[in-house]
Structure formats: C-alpha cells, structure tokens
Design goal:
The chain is built from 1 helix and 5 strands; from the N terminus they run ββαβββ. It is mainly β. The protein has one domain: Roll (Ubiquitin-like (UB roll)), CATH 3.10.20.30. It has a 5-stranded mixed beta sheet, with no helix packed on it. The radius of gyration is 11 Å and the shape is globular. It starts with a strand and ends in a 5-residue tail after the last strand.
C-alpha cells in the first residue's frame, strides 16, 4: 500500500504504525508519529491501523546538549 511519509510517497506492507516503524528501522520509544494531522500515543502504535493514502509525519527525538 502507498502512504505519504514525511511528504514523500512510499510503498509499505505494514498494517499498523508499530509494523511501519519496525520496517523502517525506527525505535518506537523515540519516534513521534502524526497520522493525518493527529499525534498518536505511543501505546496505541500496535493497534493503530494504516490505510492507503494515509499521511504520516515521523519525528525522532534526539537528546543532547
């Protein structure tokens, strides 16, 4: 299925946010996900399904000083 991730169209086989992050090699503990304009709570990643055409913004949190 095709999703729009950070402004770019991308094909994926992931059915939910947790699977998408795993496919992309991103740590869900430090990745904020916005799905169609709404922030998704991390605890809901495994149960938040994706459908073709969904728009996601993925932001990794990086600490430092």
């Amino acid at each position: 299925m095709q999703l729009i991730i950070n402004g770019e169209e991308r094909d994926t086989a992931a059915a939910d946010i947790a699977a998408l992050l795993a496919e992309l090699g991103l740590n869900p503990g430090v990745t904020v996900v916005e799905l169609n304009g709404r922030i998704v709570d991390r605890s809901a990643y495994p149960e938040t399904g994706l459908v073709a055409g969904d728009a996601l913004e993925l932001v990794r949190i990086v600490g430092g000083g």
